Amino acid sequence: MKVLLIGVGGVGEAIAKMSEKRDWLDQMVLADYTLNRAREVQKKLGDEKRFSIEQIDAKNKDGMIALVKKYDIDLIMNGCDPSLNHTIFDAAYGAGCNYMDMAMTLSEPHPEDPYNKTFVKLGDYQFERTKLWEKKGILAIVGSGVEPGMADVFARYASDYLFDEIEEIGIRDGNNMTVEGYSIPFGFSIWTTIEECLNPPVIWERGKGWFTTEPFSESEIFHLPEGIGPVEVVNVEHEEVLLIPRYIDKGLKRVTFKFGLGDDFITMLKNLKELGLHRTEKIKVGDTYISPRDVVATSAPNPAQLGPKMVGKTCAGTWVKGKKDGKARQVYLYQVADNQECMKNFGSQAIVAQTAFPPVIMMELIARGIWKGKGVYGPEAFDSVPFMDKMEDYKFPYGMIEMDSEYKEMLKEEELVKV
Amino acid sequence: MKVLLIGVGGVGEAIAKMSEKRDWLDQMVLADYTLNRAREVQKKLGDEKRFSIEQIDAKNKDGMIALVKKYDIDLIMNGCDPSLNHTIFDAAYGAGCNYMDMAMTLSEPHPEDPYNKTFVKLGDYQFERTKLWEKKGILAIVGSGVEPGMADVFARYASDYLFDEIEEIGIRDGNNMTVEGYSIPFGFSIWTTIEECLNPPVIWERGKGWFTTEPFSESEIFHLPEGIGPVEVVNVEHEEVLLIPRYIDKGLKRVTFKFGLGDDFITMLKNLKELGLHRTEKIKVGDTYISPRDVVATSAPNPAQLGPKMVGKTCAGTWVKGKKDGKARQVYLYQVADNQECMKNFGSQAIVAQTAFPPVIMMELIARGIWKGKGVYGPEAFDSVPFMDKMEDYKFPYGMIEMDSEYKEMLKEEELVKV
């Protein structure tokens, strides 16, 4: 398979690195706004023929279409901030090639009632075009990272193999990572973190559909496995809530996404908002016009480069509540990544590496013809087993906890550690 | 007297407003980088002849000298951020006219030991030039606002009339102001607040001279009068510490400046620093180069415009500890400004209005020949009584508390209110 990777940031670099030795990959074109950045990654990889570089503006649709033609590309892998999704998605359509991204097109809050009603939802732009993609015979997998991505595959697996009835699915994410010298480090794309945390979080309920709440709502304590322990998680706007109800049923009544941000980080985000620094629209500063969020994203310590200073583990996963064989059941399917291991294996910090491996597995499944289709889909539209079977090989094995037995054991052990 | 006001921001507007009906003022030229801003203030004042407007870049020394000549100016009043002090101060010298500012030229931290040693101190640039100013027969009063400014006048008054021996002088400042809908409002110039709060605070001690500490050091509870109550104050870099030891002796052993910032505000400032947003040097964002602090200062809610939403009082003052007639004595000389009164009287919020009235009184004293001299001085170099006598007339009366009697009474009353 020939891949055009648009955007060679932290996650882009990890995607290239994880694909490097795989036989399903014929070529990956590393295309970035800054050619030097693409060159830097190319040098780390070594194989200049398989990993060629190109300068590209992700707002330039025709430029991307030309690159697809130049290299006879099979799939565009979008490694950019989601604000650029429209053009990259449309370029893939225009060029008639497959497409994957790790975050869907952005939402727009309801103009009158932003904390109750949805307006433009995450991915609306993309799902509205599914018929066009079908007609053209090409495939888009949207939300193909770890969350959304792996978490959606887990939801599908639970639905297919673990439950007869599903009441609720909640993505739960947190970490115990610390960065020496930093009290409020961004662990992932600064631009995207501000976007998803300050937007009204979205929830899905049967009968009610999608609706929104105040940011940071419905705080709860969730205990994460492998020694991470209890984390306070809050509602955050995330793609899984938009994807899961499209493909999973079994009586499903509620879907949420909650993330363990921590009080200090929430305070920092609220302060950014109060200072107007979260804004994406340009403001006039002296004689220049500039987007305050772009300034924050450029000025703050780059999360992709904090890796060597980070210590700890991060956990992404899917909690499912329902019934099996007439009995109540709750499970948490998860993947825990240790930062130092990720640094050693991939030269990337844990959250970046964990985001990068699922699209690489998915590209392999597409290359081998195991995942296939026409149209625009979330990852839970495909068979979960081939994906989960490959996780260990890619050094990101999954785990599963039965909440009514193992989870209770875990809580007891946490108590013992405390004493 | 003919005044050239460079910079018609919040404080500049209040200076113009407070000078409007005064007979000592013949003309005030409102000069700003943005001519429309000067025009806006001119319209509020009504008298277009006495308050003419000019466009000026405060980095353009020759342009300012030309304005002094054009209008036959007696005094340049500097209403800009202190980063622009050098040029405006030099323009006054070049034009041979008097000069006043409300904050002194900036410090530079010690390159190796910033939290112990001073390097370039506040006002060094200006005081190094005092002989030149003397020779030319012109006067600069630096630090002429409320703090520095009024607080220094209070120190001089205490030294002349209240104490035989002085052990310590500490400027203490705080408020109980709240702004509806804001948890961390800047009460004063955003640029300057970041500068003074994140720079290493400076302390003066006899024998040791000036030295620095970690930001936010030596937290203490200080009780402020007129119902404001207890405030947690911390060391902040401020001009009074540089000025007072130059002019006041009586055995003085220590000078500090402590400001009641509040935990939430300190957290916000620390976060700005961690995100690199406090920086003044330009960084590359996309294709533009921009100073992150300029973006924060432009993006955050303008403190000069928050007035209508503010409720509460602000207190600026000078605490002096020493001996009188052989007995230990402590006093706090202060000025309390109520926001709603300031809004009613001057259309400016309390902190802005309180900063503006002292330079207006000082201009009157210079115009009437009561304060005079040649060279570069702080406000405590002049007789305190004529200044303090005018405070009531300008609607900012001072108060004084004897700490060993009235202060203790105040604490008892606070306790009663609590119960």
Instruction: Name the assembly state.
Output: homodimer
> How many DSSP-defined strands of chain A?
20
If you average the pLDDT of chain A, what whole number results? 95
According to CATH, what is the class of the largest domain in chain A?
Alpha Beta
Query: What characterizes the major β-sheet of chain A?
Result: 9 strands, mixed
Measured by residues with Cβ under 8 Å of the partner chain's Cβ, the largest interface is:
A-B, 27 and 27 residues
Percentage of helical residues of chain A?
Answer: 25-40%
Count of domain modules of chain A: 2
Task: Name the overall outline of chain A.
Answer: globular
CATH superfamily of the largest domain in chain A: Dihydrodipicolinate Reductase, domain 2
Secondary structure tally, helices of chain A = 15
Q: What is the name of the CATH architecture of the largest domain in chain A? A: 2-Layer Sandwich
Structural class of chain A: alpha/beta
| Named CATH topology of the largest domain in chain A | Dihydrodipicolinate Reductase, domain 2
User: Unreliable segments of chain A (pLDDT under 50, ≥5 consecutive)?
Assistant: none
Radius of gyration of chain A: 21 Å
Q: What is the percentage of strand-forming residues of chain A?
A: 15-25%
Domain Saccharopine dehydrogenase NADP binding (chains A, B): 3-141
Pfam families (chains A, B): Sacchrp_dh_C, Sacchrp_dh_NADP
Protein name (chains A, B): Saccharopine dehydrogenase, NADP-dependent
InterPro entries (chains A, B): NAD(P)-bd_dom_sf, Sacchrp_dh-like_C, Sacchrp_dh_NADP-bd
